[in-house]
Design a protein that fits this description.
By secondary structure, this protein is mainly alpha-helical. Helix 1 crosses helix 2. It is rod-shaped and about 80 Å long.
């Protein structure tokens, strides 16, 4: 038996594996964009809890661009929330110069709160 055969009725190549011919399928080419932390977290969420959406995006070749867009939206929202919370709590560069330890603690708290908000609004929605 031949290792590869071509079926002219559907235009697909088939590869012999064991006793069966399996179609040789490839995914459409997709332009690679860098995916940050938020995009990776959303991909994990889709893979675990929204399998159909993940599979549809993956097989259509749009997963990478979708995750890059989600990552960009989440990053912008994170930065906006962080700035708003800094202003609301009165955290300034003067505080940073006078008491760096307190400034670090307050900023870590703000970042943690901002990540939690972004997770609920964008990543796990």
């Amino acid at each position: 038996m031949e290792k590869y055969i071509f079926d002219e009725s559907n235009g697909l190549w088939y590869e012999l594996q064991g006793d069966y011919y399996i179609p040789c399928l490839t995914l459409p080419a997709e332009k690679e964009k860098p995916i940050g932390l938020f995009g990776q977290r959303h991909r994990r969420y889709l893979r675990e809890y929204r399998r159909i959406t993940y599979t549809n995006l993956f097989t259509s070749g749009r997963l990478n661009s979708y995750l890059a867009d989600i990552d960009e939206q989440a990053q912008q929202r994170f930065e906006t929330i962080t700035e708003q919370m800094k202003q609301a709590q009165g955290i300034t560069e003067q505080l940073k110069a006078e008491n760096a330890l307190e400034w670090t603690g307050r900023m870590n708290n703000i970042r943690a709160c901002a990540v939690e908000i972004v997770d609920r609004e964008i990543i796990y929605a």
